[in-house]
Amino acid sequence: NATLGIDSQTGVEVAIKERGDVAGHPVELIPEDDGCSAEGGQTAATKIASDDSVAAVVGHSCSSSCTPAAPIYNDAGLTMISPSCTAPALTGPDHVPSFLRTAHNDNVQGRVMAEFVFNELGLTTAATIHDGSPYAEQLQQVFADTFTELGGTITAQEAVNVGDTDMRPVLTSIATGSPEFLYFPVFIAEGGFITSQAKEVAGLEDTILAGADGMISPDFVSAAGEAAEGMYVSGPNLTFSGATYDQFLADYVEILGEEPVSAFHAHAFDATNMIFDAIEAVATTDADGNTVIGKQALRDALYATSGLEGITGTISCQENGDCADPEIVVSQIQGGEYVPVFGGAMAAEGDEAME
C-alpha cells in the first residue's frame, strides 16, 4: 500500500514548494510511515507527538492507523488532518477533537456505490468482503445497509485477514448465494488475490466485481492482472481541472517523477494549505522575537475553516472534523486505467482517466 502514502506525501511536498515560507519561516516536512496499520499508526503518532518542533500533522493514511493516532495527538495538543482516512466512526459520536479530514466520509462513498449497483446496473443481489480494518468494515456496511434500503438483498458479508493469500474458501462460501455483485473495499494485496481468484470459483464466473479507493493504484492493476479488467472501483472524483491543478500536477511530476499514483494527492495538498492558512492566522511573536503557534488556537482556526477553495472543492469544516466537499465517482478499469462511469462531475470533453 506504499503508493497510498507516497501519493499523499507528494501532495504535501507540492504545497510546501508552492507556498514557500509560512509566518516568515521555511517549512520542514518530517515524514513517517504508518504502515497502513494500527501498530504503525500508534508508533508514528507517538514519535511525532514527542517532537516539540511539529506544528501539525497531515495524515494518517489509513483509518486503521488514524484510529489509534488521534487520541495520542489529542493528548499532546496536536491537530491532524487526514487526506485519506474515510471511516465514518472517525467523525462519529466518539470523534476525537484532534482529528479532521479533507477526505470524504464513507457514509457518502458506500451510498453512491449502492445506488450505482441498484439503480444503474439494475442488480438486486450483492455480497461483501472486508478485511477487519475500520475502513473496509464500515464502508461495506454502509453499502450493505443502503443497498437493502433500496430494495436489494445482501446474500453474504464475509471477512478475510490482512495477509491472507488464499481467498477461495471465502469466495466459495459467497458463491452459494449466487450474488450478482461482489463489493470488497479492501487494500491492494488482498484485493488482488480476491479479484484474480474469484474468476476461478464456480458460481462467481458472471459476478460483477468491485473495490474502493484503497485499491486505486497501478500496483493493484498489476496484482490483479487481467482479472481486473471491467471491474468497478469507487472513490473520490479525480477529474480535477483548472490553473491551480495544472500547476500542482507539474510540480507533482517534478517531485515524484511520474503522474499521481493513487487517489488522495489533492486532498493532502488541500490539508497542507489549510494548516498553512491557520498558522498564519494565529502565529504571534513573543518578547524575544520568537514565532509562537498556540496549539489550541491553531486547532480552533482549523475548525473555523470555511469556504476555502481547494483542488478537491470548497472546504468548510464541521464540528465533527469533516471538512470535505465530497464528490464520489464509480470508475471502471479499462485497459489498466480507472475510467469514471458514474457520479461526480463527468468531464464535458469525455471520460478522463487516472492511470
Q: How does this structure look, described?
A:
- The chain has eleven helices and 14 strands.
- The chain has 355 residues and is an alpha/beta fold.
- The strands form four sheets. A seven-stranded mixed β-sheet has the order 5-4-6-7-8-13-14, with helices on both faces. Strands 1-2-3 form a three-stranded parallel β-sheet.
- Strand 13 (328-334) and strand 14 form a beta hairpin.
- Helix 1 packs across helix 9 and helix 4 (106-120) packs across helix 5 (134-150).
- The radius of gyration is 20 Å and the shape is elongated.
Largest sheet entry:
7 strands, mixed
Shape: elongated
Structural class: alpha/beta
Mean pLDDT: 95
β content, as a range?
A: 15-25%
Number of strands: 14
Helix content: 40-55%
Order of strands across the biggest sheet?
A: 5-4-6-7-8-13-14
Order of helices and strands: HHEHEEHEHEHEHEHEHHEEHEEEE
Q: Rounded to an integer, what's the Rg over CA atoms?
A: 20 Å
Number of helices: 11
